[in-house]
Design a protein that fits this description.
The complex is a heterodimer of chains A (318) and B (301). Chain A has 318 residues and is mainly alpha-helical. Chain A is 69% helix and 0% strand. Classes of the chains: A mainly alpha (318), B mainly alpha (301).
Chain lengths: 318, 301
């Protein structure tokens, strides 16, 4: 959010004066050395390494020495049959996650906030935050166990009611639903924390006077609680929309198998499989090019959404 | 008067039905989240054939500790456990130290260059080199197949840095610093003797943020670690849970195909419980720090 800058008129310092001032802070700069090293080596050096997306990288000549090939890898990606499938899967999965996963934490926070029994609310809160701390490997392990066609508990229940066992994990058409539901199960509670916090900032006097005026709970939620967390909702919506191309590939990769691949292959897993995960012909430059495309689109998307919301709702990230 | 009463009654009924609905809704959410975890727990102590035939739904049946015996005597899981403990403790030590130092500096509004540094850090939240160029950097530094390949590439998480910086900004008043300077305190002394003792909460938050993500991640280990004896727990679990590589030793006497599938299932349930146990036992005590961390982070949006 933009906060108004208070301008103080300071006489412009000469360069040597500024240098002298900076010098007096040398101890603070010492504190920053490990941080600079980290960001330089592991964050900015790889950005320099992105030039390999325009080169034919080979191990012998390295990133800087390999020959330039222009847009070859990008063209190859856009002309390959995988391209639109992979982009489509990514968009489908993340839009579904956003559509179903985004409103639920808001609803839960609103209802928890109106819960009369503090103890009950606390127990529910503590429990629904917990799955956030379970690792991707375990979540997918649980999915495999529960959804197994031969021994899985869900299929046992289906059979109990006279149905037939379903090959959940081996179905391409069911993959997006399974992924989105498991994401919702894992993260809804934790995502509601932010809204719960924002709601705790609502002045109780507002509610008291609304009750005096005869407002029902529904009305108070609608006209007091919801408007007061609107800024939080919009900021999170901007951030999530900007991330529409980055899906939880750690988990998706684990959920993949040859049967569901046609709808579970997303950009990040494809990038991995074309290079590091490829035993036969790893193509590092091709992977880097696709990764580069993904990052640039994400960045542009975030800036656009940010701009639009700044215009429309007078709210933006920076 | 009568009409007013009627209206009030009507409203009270409306509120009552809301509260009943609310309890039911939250109760259902609670069950939906809690049941799968509870099921894994009861399945891990029930006989595998009872689980495999759908008899175990609410309570464990034919109690057995077979699964736990098998998992605790399995070398790969125990080695993974040990490795993950070492990686997590070392990673947390490095990450928290560097993050706290940097966040403290960056919290100082008077420090020249602060804005530029922050911009450079925040930029990396939205753009990066990605998987392959990062791999090449790590590989060029000869870090692959060492513990450091799991620690250095994720040393500082920008979000955590911002949370810590926000904490310092709001909890160390500049007046305190100025009066300490007047008493002849240096920057180092102030940080060590005054700022840090006031900042135990943020250290706890960072330890947990970094600790949980280091304990739970597998992807970097899959990329960087080739030697099996160095696998962290999550990678060992991946072999068991996802790739179905349950070792012969753990399968023991299960000969028939059906018995094998069931036995493998038991091993999986137990592995889940054993590997999630440390976090789940600590969870009730550490939960409030996570909430606090999220709150500090949300101030800045």
């Amino acid at each position: 959010m933009k906060d108004k800058k208070t301008k103080v008129i300071v006489p412009k310092k000469t360069f040597s004066q500024q240098l002298a001032k900076a010098k007096s802070y040398w101890q603070l700069y010492v504190f920053l050395i490990p941080c600079f090293l980290y960001f330089g080596i592991f964050r900015y050096a790889p950005m320099g390494g992105l030039q390999m997306a325009f080169k034919d990288y080979n191990v012998v000549q390295g990133v800087w020495g390999s020959p330039w090939v222009g847009l070859k890898h990008f063209i190859r990606f856009f002309e390959s049959p995988d391209c639109w499938n992979v982009i489509g899967n990514t968009l489908k999965i993340s839009i579904l996650s956003l559509l179903f996963g985004f409103p639920l934490p808001i609803l839960i926070a609103l209802l928890l906030n109106q819960c009369r029994s503090k103890r009950f609310g606390k127990v529910v809160q503590t429990t629904i935050y917990a799955p956030h701390f379970i690792s991707a490997v375990i979540i997918v392990g649980m999915l495999n166990l529960f959804l197994s066609p031969s021994t899985g508990v869900i299929n046992k229940v289906i059979e109990m009611f006279g149905g037939e066992a379903v090959m959940f994990m081996g179905s391409a058409s069911m993959f997006p639903a399974i992924y989105v539901i498991s994401e919702i199960w894992q993260n809804t509670g934790y995502s509601s924390i932010v809204y719960t916090a924002a709601l705790s900032g609502v002045s109780p006097e507002l509610h008291e006077s609304a009750i005096m005026d005869g407002a029902t709970v529904w009305q108070r939620i609608r006209y007091i609680d919801l408007p007061s967390i609107m800024p939080t909702i919009i900021i999170l919506l901007i951030m999530n929309t900007g991330r529409v191309l980055t899906v939880g590939y750690e988990k998706i990769y684990l959920m993949q198998n040859s049967l569901n691949l046609s709808s579970s292959e997303v950009i990040s897993t494809y990038v991995y499989k074309q290079s590091l995960g490829s035993a036969s012909r790893p193509n590092f430059s091709y992977s880097a090019a696709i990764g580069f495309f993904e990052s640039v689109v994400s960045l542009v998307l975030l800036m656009v959404v940010n701009k639009v919301s700044a215009k429309v709702a007078d709210m933006s990230l920076v | 008067m009568d009409g007013q009463m009627k209206k009030n009654n009507h409203k009270r009924e409306g509120n009552l039905s809301f509260h009943i609905f609310n309890y039911i809704f939250l109760g259902i959410i609670f069950l939906l989240v809690a049941y799968p975890i509870y099921f894994v727990l009861i399945a891990s102590i029930s006989h595998p054939s009872a689980v495999g035939t759908g008899q175990v739904l609410l309570l464990p049946k034919q109690l057995t500790t077979e699964g736990y015996k098998a998992v605790f005597s399995d070398d790969s899981i125990m080695t993974g456990y040990k490795n993950s403990l070492i990686y997590t403790l070392t990673g947390v030590l490095f990450s928290v130290t560097t993050t706290v130092l940097a966040a403290y500096s960056l919290s100082r509004r008077d420090m020249p260059g602060r804005k530029v540094f922050m911009m450079l850090i925040v930029f990396t939240m939205y753009f990066g080199g990605g998987m392959i160029p990062t791999y090449i950097v790590v590989n060029n530094l000869k870090l692959t197949n060492t513990m450091w390949s799991l620690i250095f590439p994720t040393l500082i998480v920008p979000y955590n840095l911002i949370v810590a910086r926000t904490f310092f900004e709001s909890s160390i008043p500049s007046e305190l610093r100025e009066s300490a300077y007047l008493d002849g305190c240096t920057e180092f002394q102030f940080f060590k003797d005054i700022a840090m003792p006031l900042s135990k909460a943020i250290v706890a938050i960072l330890v947990l943020f970094y600790g949980v993500s280091q304990w739970n991640t597998y992807f970097n280990a899959m990329i960087y670690i080739r030697r099996q004896e160095m696998y962290p727990l999550q990678l060992v679990l991946r072999n068991i849970l996802i790739e179905n590589q349950v070792s012969q030793e753990m399968m023991q006497d299960a000969k028939q195909a059906a018995a094998q599938i069931e036995r493998a299932g038991l091993i999986k349930y137990v592995s889940i419980i054993v590997s999630a146990a440390p976090l789940m036992i600590l969870y009730p005590f550490i939960q409030k720090y996570f909430v606090k961390g999220v709150l500090i982070g949300s101030v800045k949006g």
